[in-house]
C-alpha cells in the first residue's frame, strides 16, 4: 500500500511539472474539459437558485397573510381543490347538465374576526408618453404589512391618496413615464400621479399600475359605461390573516362554498395524497412519473453525457499522446532506472488526473463567479427574481468527478501506448513497428450492425424514438471503434496522389494511434451535424409542401376587434403610411347591440352577436346539431361517412376556407376587397354593386337564392339552446345572394356585402380593419415602424402579412455547420501537432536531400486536411442513419393516423401522407469541401517553412 501510494505521488508530481512546462497544450486540454463543466455547473446553480422554496413562493403570492381567498367562478357550488390552490373542479360531475358559471360572495366564506385585505385587478388602456399602453391595474394597499413581499418597492413610495399610483419598472420603461409624471386612461379624464416604482418578483416583465382599493377601477368602469362601451372585467381576491391559520380541513370546509384557498399552513405542511379528494376525480389524479419513464429519462441523460465525454476524450486524447511522445525520453529514463510499465502508465494517467482536477476546479469556480455576477442578467432573461443562491455540494461534486473521469479516460490510450514502448526505443527516439488491434474493428462492426438493426427496428416496427436514438448512438460508437481500420482503407488511395498529400496520408495510416482519435472526434461532431441538418431539411421540405397561404402573396390584413373597432381608422392610417400599398380595401363587421360590444357579445347588458344561418338542407349530416345533444356522426357506418366526405358537397372542404375574418366569414366592404384577394369576375362585382350578398360558400345560400343573418340579443338563451341542440332565438334578416361560380380561393372570406346593403337590411356595422395589396414585400424597417405605430394604440391588433413559406431552420443549419467546422479544425489541428512531433525526423531527411522549404508547410497542411477529410466523410455517412430513422418513425405515425381516419370514414383522401427524406447537399458540400480545405490552409499558414537542420537519427 505504501509503495503504491509513493509511486502515484511521484507520478502526479512528474505529471504536474510536465503540465506546467507545456502550458499551451495543458491550457488547450483544460479548456476542452472545463468549458462543458462550466456550462453544466452554471446551469445547475441557475436552476437550483430559480426554484423557490414553499416559504419564498408564499411570500410572493400571499405576502404575510395566512391565506388568499378567491372565487372559483362556479356559482358557489362545492369544489375540490389541490393543496396549492392552483387547480380545482366542482364536486358534482355536470356531464349532461350546463356547467355552473357565475360568481359568489367570497367575503361570506371568510371567518369572523379575520383581518382582510382586498386585492382587486382589471385592465385599462393607459396614457403614456408615446400614446396608449394596455396594462393591468391592481388595487392593493401595498404598504399594509399583510402585503409585504408581494411587491418590491424600487424607488419612491407607496400610494397614500386616491389620486396616487405606483407602476412597475417595466411599465415605466415601456411608457416613457417616470416618477412624478401623471397618467390617466382612455375615456377616463381623472389624472393620477406616479409616486413610486416597484416590481413583481415572479413577473418582471408585467406592465402593471398599483392604486389604493376603490381609487381607480370602480370610477374607470363607470366612465367606460358612460362612453357606451362594455365595462372591463374585474376580479378580486382577499388576503386573510387569522389566528391559527387555515388547516387542510378548514380549506375543505371553505371549498363547499365555491371558494378556492391558498393556505400558508397547507403549503408548508401539505396533506397526504390520499387526503386530497381532487386526486380521486378522473383527470385530476396526482401525476407520478412511471418507472419506465424515469428509466427512459436516465438512459437519455446517460447517452448524452456519454457521447459528450466521448467527444472530449477523442479531442483530448491526441493532446495527451503529444505530451507522452515529447516526454518519451523522460519516460525512458524512468524505465532505465527500474520503473515498471505500470509506473509509465501512472505518469501518463496522472497527466489526465491533474488536468481533470484543474478543469473541475476552474469550471466550478468560474460557474460560481459568473452565476453570481450575471444573476441580474439571468433574472431579467427568465423574467423572475431568484430565491436564495442555492449551492448543492453533492451535485457540484458529481460534476467535478465527471471532469476528473473525463481527463483520466482521455489519457488511458496514450498511457498504454507509452507503456508498451521499450526503454531502448524511448531513449533513442525510435518508433518501432506498431500493429493496430484486429479485435477492435470487429467489435466496432458488430456494434454498427446491431445499432443499425435496433434503429431500423425502432423506426419500422415499434415506432419508438428512444430505440432509434439508442441504436444510432450504438452504431456511431461502432464506427468510432472501426476508425483505425477505416483509416487504413483510406491509405490505399495514396498511390494516385502527389508527393505532399501522399506523405501526409502515409504518415496518417502508419500512425493510426494518433490519427484515429482525431478522425473519430471529427466523425462524432460531423455525424451529429449531418443528422440534425438532414432531419431539419426533411421537415422543411414537408412543411413547404404542406404550406397553405392564408392570403395572396404580398397582401396584408389588420383587424381590430375590441371597443367596437374604435382604433380601426388609426390602424388603417398606420398601414397606409408605412407599407408600400397598391390597393386598399377597408372592411367592417356586423355589430349587434351597443357600438362598443365585442363581435362575440357577452360583455355586459346590451351586447349581442350574429350568426350566418346555414339552411338545414345545406348542413352536413355528420355535423348537424341534433336535439338533446350527442354526436350525429355515430349513426353512420365508416363507409357511409367516407361517402359523405368524398361525394356530398355539403361535407367537402370549401375553397373559401382559410384565415378567420369574422363570425360566418362575413365582411362588409366593396369591390376593392375582391381585387385585393385576386377575385377577378365582373359578374361578382356587378352583383355586389346591385346590393346582393356575394357568397363564396355554397352551404350559406338556400334554395331561394338568399342568405339569412340572425341577430341574437339574448346571449344566455342562445347558449342554452346551443347546449340543447336547438337553434338560437333571434331576428333573421334575409338578403338576396349571388353565389360565385367555380371554386375561387377567397382566403377565409365566405360572404361579402357593401355598407349600403347592410344599412338597407337594418344591420348595424362597426369598423374592423383593412386589407392591402403591396407593390413589393415590406422590408424589415417598414415592418418595425408599423409595429411601433400599432403599439402606441395600446390595443390588440391582429396583423398578418403573407410572405409565402419562410424557412425557420436556415440559421440553425448554418450554426450547426459552423460548429462542426470548428470542431473539425480543432481536432485536425491537434492531430497535426502530433504528426509534426512524430514526423520531425522525416522532415529533417527531406531538408537534407534538398527538398524546398515549402514542403514542410504543405506537408503540415495536407496532414491536417487528410484528418479533416477522413472524419468528415465518415461522419457524413454515420449521421444519415439517425435522421433517416426518425423520419421513418414519423412516416409510420402519420401513416397510422391516416389509415385510422380512412378506416373510420373521416378521410376521403386516398393519397397516403408524404414524409420526404431530404439530404442537405449544401451543408454536406460545405463540410466535405470547405472544412477540410480551410483546415489545410490554416495549418499551412501557422507552420514555419524552415526548421533547424539536424542530424537524422538512425531508426
What does the model show?
The chain is of the alpha+beta class and 955 residues long. The protein is built from 29 helices and 22 strands. Strands 1, 4, 5, 6, 7, 8, 9, 10, 11 and 12 form a 10-stranded mixed β-sheet that branches. The two termini are 40 Å apart.
Concise overview:
The protein is α+β, with helices and mostly antiparallel strands and 955 residues long. Strands 1, 4, 5, 6, 7, 8, 9, 10, 11 and 12 form a 10-stranded mixed sheet that branches. A 6-stranded mixed sheet has the order 15-18-19-17-20-16.
Q: How large is the share of residues in beta strands?
A: 5-15%
Low-confidence stretches: 286-293, 948-955
Looking at the structure, what is the overall shape? globular
Q: Work out the oligomeric state of the chains in this entry.
A: single chain
Distance between the termini: 40 Å
Rounded radius of gyration (Å): 37 Å
Please describe the biggest sheet, giving its number of strands, its sense, and whether it closes into a barrel. 10 strands, mixed
Helix fraction, binned, reads: 40-55%
Task: Specify the structural class.
Answer: alpha+beta
E-strand count: 22
Count of helical stretches:
29
Average pLDDT, all residues: 80
Primary descriptors:
globular; disordered C terminus; alpha+beta; 29 helices; 955 residues
Blueprint of the fold:
Layout: H1 2-21, H2 23-50, H3 54-62, E1 67-71, E2 79-81, E3 88-90, E4 115-127, E5 132-139, E6 152-156, E7 164-168, H4 169-175, E8 182-185, E9 188-199, E10 208-211, H5 217-226, E11 235-241, H6 248-255, E12 259-263, H7 264-268, H8 291-326, H9 328-336, H10 341-373, H11 375-382, H12 393-420, H13 423-428, H14 439-462, H15 465-481, H16 483-490, H17 499-510, H18 512-545, E13 555-560, H19 568-578, E14 581-590, E15 609-613, H20 638-647, E16 666-668, H21 671-676, H22 682-689, E17 693-695, E18 706-712, H23 715-723, E19 731-739, E20 751-753, H24 755-760, E21 765-774, H25 780-791, E22 797-801, H26 810-838, H27 840-848, H28 854-904, H29 921-942
Parallel strand pairs: 5-10, 7-9, 16-20, 17-19
Antiparallel strand pairs: 1-11, 1-12, 2-3, 4-5, 4-11, 6-9, 7-10, 8-9, 13-21, 13-22, 14-21, 15-18, 17-20, 18-19
Helix pairs in contact: 1-10, 2-8, 2-10, 2-12, 8-12, 8-18, 8-26, 10-12, 14-15, 14-28, 15-18, 15-28, 16-17, 16-18, 17-28, 18-26, 18-28, 19-25, 26-28, 26-29, 28-29
Amino acid at each position: 500500500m505504501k509503495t503504491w501510494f509513493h509511486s502515484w505521488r511521484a507520478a502526479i508530481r512528474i505529471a504536474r511539472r510536465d503540465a506546467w512546462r507545456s502550458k499551451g497544450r495543458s491550457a488547450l486540454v483544460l479548456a476542452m474539459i472545463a468549458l462543458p463543466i462550466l456550462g453544466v455547473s452554471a446551469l445547475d446553480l441557475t436552476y437550483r437558485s430559480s426554484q423557490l422554496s414553499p416559504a419564498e413562493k408564499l411570500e410572493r403570492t400571499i405576502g404575510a397573510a395566512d391565506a388568499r381567498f378567491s372565487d372559483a367562478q362556479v356559482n358557489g357550488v362545492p369544489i375540490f381543490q389541490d393543496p396549492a390552490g392552483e387547480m380545482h373542479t366542482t364536486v358534482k360531475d355536470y356531464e349532461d347538465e350546463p356547467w355552473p358559471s357565475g360568481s359568489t360572495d367570497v367575503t361570506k366564506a371568510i371567518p369572523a374576526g379575520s383581518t382582510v385585505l382586498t386585492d382587486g385587478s382589471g385592465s385599462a388602456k393607459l396614457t403614456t408618453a408615446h400614446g396608449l399602453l394596455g396594462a393591468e391595474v391592481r388595487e392593493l394597499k401595498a404598504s399594509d404589512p399583510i402585503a409585504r413581499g408581494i411587491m418590491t418597492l424600487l424607488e419612491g413610495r407607496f400610494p397614500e391618496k386616491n389620486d396616487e399610483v405606483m407602476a412597475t419598472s417595466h411599465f415605466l420603461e415601456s411608457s416613457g413615464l417616470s416618477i412624478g409624471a401623471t397618467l390617466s386612461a382612455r375615456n377616463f379624464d381623472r389624472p393620477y400621479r406616479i409616486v413610486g416604482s416597484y416590481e413583481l418578483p415572479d413577473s418582471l416583465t408585467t406592465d402593471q399600475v398599483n392604486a389604493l382599493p376603490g381609487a381607480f377601477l370602480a370610477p374607470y368602469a363607470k366612465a367606460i359605461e358612460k362612453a357606451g362601451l362594455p365595462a372591463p372585467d374585474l376580479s378580486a381576491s382577499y388576503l386573510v390573516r387569522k389566528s391559527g391559520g387555515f388547516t387542510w380541513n378548514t380549506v375543505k370546509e371553505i371549498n363547499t362554498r365555491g371558494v378556492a384557498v391558498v393556505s400558508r399552513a397547507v403549503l408548508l405542511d401539505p396533506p397526504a395524497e390520499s387526503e386530497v379528494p381532487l386526486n380521486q376525480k378522473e383527470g385530476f389524479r396526482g401525476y407520478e412519473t412511471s418507472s419506465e419513464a424515469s428509466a427512459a429519462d436516465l438512459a437519455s441523460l446517460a447517452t448524452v453525457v456519454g457521447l459528450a465525454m466521448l467527444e472530449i476524450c477523442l479531442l483530448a486524447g491526441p493532446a495527451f499522446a503529444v505530451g507522452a511522445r515529447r516526454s518519451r525520453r523522460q519516460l525512458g529514463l524512468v524505465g532505465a532506472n527500474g520503473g515498471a510499465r505500470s509506473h509509465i502508465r501512472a505518469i501518463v494517467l496522472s497527466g489526465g488526473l491533474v488536468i481533470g482536477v484543474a478543469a473541475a476546479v476552474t469550471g466550478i469556480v468560474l460557474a460560481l463567479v459568473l452565476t453570481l455576477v450575471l444573476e441580474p442578467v439571468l433574472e431579467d432573461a427568465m423574467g423572475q427574481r431568484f430565491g436564495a443562491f442555492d449551492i448543492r455540494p453533492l451535485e457540484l461534486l458529481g460534476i467535478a468527478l465527471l471532469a476528473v473521469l473525463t481527463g483520466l479516460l482521455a489519457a488511458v490510450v496514450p498511457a498504454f501506448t507509452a507503456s508498451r514502448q521499450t526503454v531502448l526505443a524511448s531513449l533513442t527516439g525510435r518508433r518501432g513497428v506498431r500493429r493496430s488491434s484486429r479485435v477492435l474493428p470487429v467489435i466496432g462492426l458488430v456494434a454498427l450492425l446491431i445499432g443499425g438493426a435496433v434503429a431500423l427496428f425502432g423506426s419500422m416496427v415499434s415506432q419508438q424514438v428512444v430505440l432509434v436514438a439508442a441504436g444510432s448512438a450504438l452504431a456511431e460508437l461502432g464506427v468510432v471503434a472501426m476508425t483505425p481500420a477505416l483509416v487504413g482503407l483510406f491509405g490505399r488511395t495514396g498511390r494516385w496522389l502527389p508527393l505532399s498529400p501522399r506523405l501526409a496520408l502515409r504518415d496518417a495510416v502508419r500512425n493510426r494511434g494518433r490519427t484515429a482519435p482525431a478522425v473519430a472526434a471529427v466523425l462524432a461532431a460531423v455525424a451529429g451535424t449531418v443528422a440534425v441538418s438532414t432531419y431539419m431539411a426533411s421537415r422543411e421540405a414537408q412543411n413547404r409542401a404542406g404550406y397553405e397561404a392564408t392570403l395572396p402573396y404580398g397582401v396584408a390584413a389588420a383587424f381590430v376587434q375590441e371597443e367596437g373597432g374604435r382604433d380601426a381608422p388609426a390602424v388603417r392610417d398606420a398601414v397606409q403610411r408605412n407599407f408600400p400599398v397598391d390597393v386598399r380595401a377597408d372592411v367592417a363587421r356586423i355589430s349587434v347591440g351597443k357600438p362598443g360590444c365585442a363581435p362575440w357579445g357577452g360583455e355586459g347588458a346590451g351586447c349581442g352577436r350574429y350568426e350566418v344561418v346555414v339552411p338545414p338542407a345545406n348542413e352536413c349530416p355528420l355535423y348537424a346539431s341534433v336535439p338533446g345533444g350527442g354526436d350525429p356522426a355515430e349513426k353512420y357506418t365508416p363507409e357511409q361517412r367516407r361517402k359523405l366526405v368524398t361525394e356530398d358537397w355539403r361535407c367537402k372542404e370549401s375553397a373559401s376556407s382559410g384565415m378567420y375574418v369574422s363570425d360566418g366569414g362575413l365582411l362588409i366592404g366593396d369591390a376593392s376587397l375582391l381585387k385585393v384577394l385576386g377575385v377577378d369576375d365582373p359578374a361578382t362585382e356587378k352583383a355586389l354593386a346591385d346590393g346582393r350578398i356575394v357568397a363564396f360558400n355554397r352551404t350559406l345560400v338556400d334554395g331561394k337564392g338568399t342568405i339569412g343573418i340572425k341577430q341574437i340579443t339574448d346571449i344566455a338563451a342562445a347558449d342554452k339552446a346551443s347546449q340543447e341542440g336547438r337553434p338560437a332565438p333571434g331576428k333573421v334578416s334575409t338578403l338576396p345572394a349571388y353565389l360565385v361560380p367555380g371554386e375561387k380561393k377567397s382566403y377565409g372570406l365566405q360572404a361579402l356585402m357593401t355598407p349600403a346593403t347592410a344599412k338597407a337590411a337594418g344591420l348595424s356595422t362597426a369598423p374592423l380593419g383593412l386589407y392591402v395589396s403591396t407593390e413589393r414585400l415590406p422590408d424589415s424597417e417598414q415592418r418595425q415602424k408599423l409595429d411601433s405605430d400599432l403599439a402606441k394604440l395600446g390595443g390588440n391588433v391582429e396583423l398578418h402579412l403573407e410572405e409565402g413559406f419562410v424557412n425557420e431552420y436556415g440559421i440553425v443549419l448554418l450554426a450547426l455547420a459552423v460548429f462542426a467546422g470548428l470542431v473539425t479544425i480543432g481536432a485536425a489541428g491537434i492531430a497535426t501537432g502530433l504528426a509534426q512531433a512524430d514526423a520531425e525526423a522525416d522532415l529533417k531527411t527531406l531538408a537534407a536531400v534538398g527538398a524546398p522549404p515549402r514542403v514542410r508547410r504543405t506537408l503540415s497542411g495536407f496532414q491536417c486536411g487528410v484528418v479533416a477529410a477522413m472524419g468528415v466523410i465518415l461522419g457524413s455517412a454515420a449521421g444519415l442513419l439517425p435522421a433517416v430513422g426518425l423520419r421513418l418513425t414519423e412516416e409510420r405515425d402519420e401513416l397510422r393516423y391516416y389509415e385510422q381516419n380512412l378506416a373510420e370514414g373521416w378521410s376521403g383522401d386516398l393519397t397516403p401522407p408524404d414524409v420526404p427524406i431530404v439530404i442537405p447537399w449544401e451543408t454536406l458540400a460545405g463540410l466535405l469541401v470547405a472544412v477540410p480545405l480551410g483546415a489545410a490552409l490554416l495549418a499551412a499558414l501557422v507552420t514555419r517553412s524552415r526548421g533547424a537542420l539536424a542530424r537524422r537519427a538512425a531508426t
